[in-house]
């Protein structure tokens, strides 16, 4: 059960420069711009008084406001570069939001603009898990398609191929290997004090929210975009 007394901020971070798919954050997907899908899911969850978009693009800002998000600052250039880390960008939006709204938020939920297939239930259920288990932070994942214990390989410095993580006993079936997950980039949640001081996603009390593959596509390429379009039409 979600604690209704808590102040929860939603951020959506979307920069203008996209190399894999040009202008992907505002490219039309199933009748509306890509970023609008994440804004709409956040609104439909009814968890947030404020849904804040962090961007360096005037066009993204205009579209985000049109679909119901708040954009009250323009992201600094050093946080809009190809090398800018995800956590510092989200932290910047969080700090600016507390100052702008003159309040402290207990919890931050960040929704990636390029993951439009998450559902309202995913947002609500991940927050319920986060609060129930008392995690410091949580992020969404999907079961790995390849296992480092079974069929994920790498080359060493001498060019020799080995399993990425060999075990003492050989794993003959993928089902017998330890469970591994891919970060799907869809949902990230932090306690206030954690987002303000921690740069790593991997902490002593980090939780995982597992989503199925069909809701876990993070759009990085033109092929990803076409596949998501196909899934949305199929649904």
UniProtKB/TrEMBL annotation:
SUPFAM superfamilies: Nucleotide-diphospho-sugar transferases (SSF53448). It comes from the Bacteria. CDD domains: CMP-NeuAc_Synthase (cd02513). Keywords: Cell projection, Cilium, Flagellum. The lineage of its organism: Bacteria, Pseudomonadati, Pseudomonadota, Gammaproteobacteria, Vibrionales. This is Flagellar modification protein B. One of its GO terms (molecular function) is N-acylneuraminate cytidylyltransferase activity. It comes from Paraphotobacterium marinum.
């Amino acid at each position: 059960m979600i604690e209704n007394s808590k102040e929860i901020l939603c951020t959506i971070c979307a920069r203008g420069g996209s190399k894999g798919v040009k202008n992907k954050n505002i490219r039309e997907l199933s009748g509306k711009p890509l970023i609008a899908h994440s804004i709409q899911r956040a609104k439909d969850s009814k968890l947030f008084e404020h849904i804040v978009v962090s961007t360096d693009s005037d066009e993204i800002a205009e579209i985000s406001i049109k679909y119901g998000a708040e954009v009250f600052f323009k992201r600094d250039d050093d946080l809009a570069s190809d090398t800018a880390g995800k956590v510092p960008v989200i932290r910047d939006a969080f700090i600016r939001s507390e100052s702008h709204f003159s309040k402290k938020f207990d919890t931050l939920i960040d929704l990636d603009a390029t993951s439009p297939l998450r559902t309202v239930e995913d947002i609500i259920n991940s927050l319920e898990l986060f609060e129930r288990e008392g995690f410091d932070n949580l992020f969404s994942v999907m079961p790995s398609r390849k296992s480092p214990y079974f069929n994920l390989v790498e080359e060493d410095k001498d060019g020799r191929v080995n399993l990425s993580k060999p075990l003492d006993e050989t794993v003959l079936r993928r089902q017998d290997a330890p469970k591994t997950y891919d970060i799907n980039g869809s949902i990230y949640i932090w306690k206030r004090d954690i987002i303000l001081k921690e740069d790593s996603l991997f902490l002593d009390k980090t939780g995982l929210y597992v989503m199925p593959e069909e809701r876990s596509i993070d759009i990085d390429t033109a092929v990803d975009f076409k596949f998501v379009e196909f899934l949305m039409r199929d649904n």
